[in-house]
Amino acid sequence: MKRVCVFCGASTGHDPAYAQAAAALGRAIAARGLGLVYGGGSVGLMGVVAQAAQESGAEVIGVIPRLLIAREVHERRIRDLRVVETMHERKALMASLSDGFLALPGGFGTLDEAFETLTWSQLGIHRKGLVFVDVLGYWQGLDRLLDRMLAEGFLKPDTRRLAMLADGPEAALDLLAAFVPPADAPVWATAADI
Ligand code: AMP
Q1: 31-72 pLDDT per residue, tens
Q2: Which of 29, 94, 160, 188 is the most exposed place for a label (fewest CB within 10 A)?
Q3: Nearest residue to 131 via CA among 95, 185, 157, 169
Q4: Nearest 5 degrees, angle CA 185-CA 189-CA 194?
């Protein structure tokens, strides 16, 4: 694993524990000699994780749609900021630059990014795992929902395994590094199809 993509909120959340976890994740990525790929913004948990990773010596690549620069890049601190034209291009480039995905707490955007990534793995467009980094139990409800999807027959066991949960940055990076994609899963689509 060379680069990790982090999806996270464009807000920091109310509790300082969220930003503390984002900073710890940025430092942990650097300490393991990994690069960070993220949404390119300077706001919210996005800005915190990127700043911490860059200050700790990690390669940091931000990917931002041109239309969101005014909203999400208030200070241009990240050296490698790649500007794309659409939200879709952003997700595709973030995915192609990364070897695995982490989701810190966030809102609609974070969920959209996480679940699009998981559906691409499910279709065989890539075979990369995703770990939800659980801060203050933030993702517990989602984890229960995924178990319910499995129990009710809406997810297959191999697909359920693509979405992991860890209780902090170090455990999340360990899980991602150990992730083995499902063997001989069918390829239903390729990157050219998305
Ligand atoms: P949020 O989790 O809602 O705070 O958003 C986190 C990040 O997701 C922000 O950088 C948003 O611009 C981004 N985002 C929101 N919707 C989308 C989308 N449909 N595709 C790609 N990124 C998105």
Answers
A1: 999 999 999 999 999 999 999 999 999 999 999 999 999 888
A2: 188
A3: 169
A4: 140
Name the pTM for this structure.
Answer: 0.94
Ligand 1 pocket, 90 CB below 6 A? Answer: yes
Evaluated on CA atoms 154, 185, 122, 139, the torsion sign reads positive
Domains, the chain, with CATH or none: 3-180 (3.40.50.450)
Read off the pLDDT of residues 126-147 as tens digits, 9 standing for 90 and up: 889 999 999 999 999 999 999 9
Q: Ligand 1 centroid to 90 CA: how many Å?
A: 10
The residue contributing the CA closest to ligand 1 atom 12 is 109
Q: Which helix (H) or strand (E) holds 149?
A: helix 140-151
